[in-house]
Specification:
- This protein is mainly beta.
- Helix content is 0%, strand content 54%.
- The chain has a two-stranded antiparallel ribbon. Strands 3-4 form a two-stranded antiparallel sheet.
- The protein is extended and about 55 Å long.
- The N and C termini lie far apart (49 Å).
- The model has no long low-confidence stretch (mean pLDDT 86).
Length: 71
């Protein structure tokens, strides 16, 4: 599900983070172009959501370590 910001930039609503970039260059690599950009803005729509990782062919969430209790 997409929405558009004030400048018309399409943003994915369900993304945990949205990186808005200014294009610095586009490098041609065979039949593809690699876009190099400079981050202009970082948006975190749901600051309570934790990151989702993909490693060893599985998805996982990062859980904070519990604070060590004072002795």
């Amino acid at each position: 599900d997409w929405h558009f910001d004030a400048t018309g930039l399409p943003l994915l609503k369900s993304a945990l983070a949205q990186l808005v970039c200014d294009v610095s260059s586009i490098v041609d690599m065979g039949s593809h172009g690699i876009t190099i950009g400079e981050i202009a803005d970082i948006r975190l729509p749901d600051s309570e959501a934790g990151p989702l990782l993909y490693a060893d062919a599985e998805f996982a969430r990062v859980m904070p370590k519990p604070l060590a209790s004072a002795a």
